[in-house]
Amino acid sequence: MEKPNALYAQSGGVTAVINASASGVIEAARLHADKIGTVYAARNGIIGALTEDLIDTSFESSADIKALRHTPSGAFGSCRHKLGSLEKDRPQYERLIEVFSAHNIKYFFYNGGGDSQDTAYKVSQFSKTLGYPITCIGIPKTIDNDLPFTDNSPGFGSVAKYVAVSIREAAMDLAAMALTSTKVFVLEVMGRHAGWIAAASGLACEKEGDAPHIILFPEIPFAPEAFLKRVQECVQRFGYCAIVVSEGLKNQDGTFLSESGLVDAFGHKQLGGVAPLIAKLTKEKLGYKYHYAISDYLQRSARHIASKTDVDQAYALGKAAVEFALAGKNAVMPIIVRQPGKTYQWKIGEAPLEKVANIEVNLPRDYISTDGFSITQKARAYLSPLIEGEDYPPYKNGLPQYVTLRNVAVEKKSEAVFEV
Amino acid sequence: MEKPNALYAQSGGVTAVINASASGVIEAARLHADKIGTVYAARNGIIGALTEDLIDTSFESSADIKALRHTPSGAFGSCRHKLGSLEKDRPQYERLIEVFSAHNIKYFFYNGGGDSQDTAYKVSQFSKTLGYPITCIGIPKTIDNDLPFTDNSPGFGSVAKYVAVSIREAAMDLAAMALTSTKVFVLEVMGRHAGWIAAASGLACEKEGDAPHIILFPEIPFAPEAFLKRVQECVQRFGYCAIVVSEGLKNQDGTFLSESGLVDAFGHKQLGGVAPLIAKLTKEKLGYKYHYAISDYLQRSARHIASKTDVDQAYALGKAAVEFALAGKNAVMPIIVRQPGKTYQWKIGEAPLEKVANIEVNLPRDYISTDGFSITQKARAYLSPLIEGEDYPPYKNGLPQYVTLRNVAVEKKSEAVFEV
Question: Are A176 and A249 part of one and the same domain?
Answer without folding.
Answer: yes
